[in-house]
Amino acid sequence: MFGKRNIVFIKNALAIIGIIVMIILIGCSSLNEKDSENVEKNQENKNVDEVIMKQTKAEEREVEEIIRTCLESYEETDKLDDLEASRNFVDTLGENGYTAVDSENQINMTEHEKLIQFCKKVEAKENGRITIVEIVGKGNYIIRHMETTNGTVNIIRRHYIYEDGEIKLFSEDIYRAESWKYTEDGYLLFSGWLTFEDSYEVTRNEIMEYTAYRVQPLAENYRELNRKYILPIGYECNNMFLTDWSEEDFGDLDFYDVFDICCRDKHMYNGDFSSGNAMGTSAVYLISKEKFERIIMTKFKITSEVLQTKTVYYPEERVYEYKPRGLEEVEYPEYPYPEVVGYVENSDGTLTLKVHAVFPYRGLSKVYTHEVTVRDTEDGGIQYVGNRILEPINNQEIVWHTPRLTRAEWEELYGGD
User: Fold this and answer.
1) Which of 14, 76, 207, 410 could be 405's S-S partner, Cβ–Cβ 3.0 to 4.6 Å?
2) What number of other Cβ atoms are within 10 A of residue 381's Cβ?
3) SS (H, E, C) the chain
4) If we measure between CA atoms, which residue out of 266, 283, 269 comes closest to residue 324?
5) pLDDT at 197
6) Own/partner pairs for 34-39, CB < 8 Å, 24+ apart?
7) pLDDT at 50
8) What is the mean pLDDT of each run of 10 residues along the chain (417 residues)?
9) What is the reported pTM?
């Protein structure tokens, strides 16, 4: 089974180099084609369409007050990077009359009515200004001064960092919003070019920033359900929430990706099987039946017989075959994030959660909708019972997930026995 691995080492190395080059080219062309076009257009118009926006005296005083308020809040806690600390910072700023939000959209925006009124002025092509404070963690935050005139939105973006007991200005950008959308479900999504004078990139000194703010409040129990059941899985490198499946029929659910997700808990394994350890190689691991099934069955009510039909199992050795994701299975680095917007308590003790996939990179507050059924176990764990797509992705170009290689594809690429 492993005999050809040394023989084809050079072949694999060349294949890997080719794949790396292909990914770089794809990333710079196909996946970022829109961004590249915008870069060229932006550079062509830079001299004739320069954004001119200055901070007002009132906004200067606001910044001083915001800094003072944040410093006082920092002095009251020794944790700057947990949810409760961010909640305290947001709430404190709100008590002082500021529109504030956290970058992960886990806390309701304060003074959100001010931003709604600003969005109405943008739509009506009236004049208006607003200041928004975004908490980004570790004591850092972003202050955005926004100005709208005739339907366009100009933004002064200042990034501040907390260091050695002081709040310091880290970067400043003045730009025009390339896109701007306030959605029916209460999201503001916008984008704009940030400039980096000393960029590490040779050919680019600008990068497009995509921002999503949940403006309308969301029930706190929805947020708690999301953090408990959905966020730990997410949409990265797995199809748990991308395909229909249930305990009666697991469908196309990929249990190898499930294995990777379960193994994020360091208490469950020693790290030998993480995809990063063998990225881009033809590595194959054999995992004992007891270990593999114990990990999977913490999250799913599934029999050994069914699990074996969904994986590669060697009954004589009582082991499961496991191949880490390789370079050809790398996904694009921009992902949606889940947001629970409703739930139902079922008669059998399970919960069914309604979930929107929010995709800032695509400017969508709902790229698709699905429902996830879960149950709590007696030992305090969680089992996933099923997933069902309610509203599918209506644009097939909006993709981020890369399935693992099939057995035939893997053997063709790596020449396995």
Assistant:
1) 410
2) 10
3) CCCHHHHCHHHHHHHHHHHHHHHHHHHHCCCCHHHHHHHHHHHHCCCCCCCCCCCCHHHHHHHHHHHHHHHHHHHCCCCCCCHHHHHHHHHHHHHCCCEEEECCCCCCCECHHHHHHHHHHHHHCCCEEEEEEEEEECCEEEEEEEEEECCEEEEEEEEEEEECCEEEEEEEEEEECCEEEECCCCEEEEEEEEECCCCCCCCCCEEEEEEEEECCCCCHHHHHHHHHHHCCCCCCCCCCCCCCEECCCCCCCCHHHHHHHHCCCCCCCCCCCCHHHHCCCCCCEEEEHHHHHHHHHCCCCCCHHHHHHCCCEECCCCEEEECCCCHHHCCCCCCCEEEEEEEEECCCCCEEEEEEEEEHHHCEEEEEEEEEEEEECCCCCEEEEEEEEEECCCCCCCCCCCCCCCHHHHHHHHCCC
4) 283
5) 55
6) 35/208, 38/178, 38/193, 38/208, 39/193, 39/204, 39/206
7) 67
8) 38 46 44 47 46 91 95 80 90 97 96 98 98 92 97 96 91 95 97 71 70 97 98 96 98 96 62 45 85 95 97 96 89 94 98 98 97 96 97 91 90 72
9) 0.83
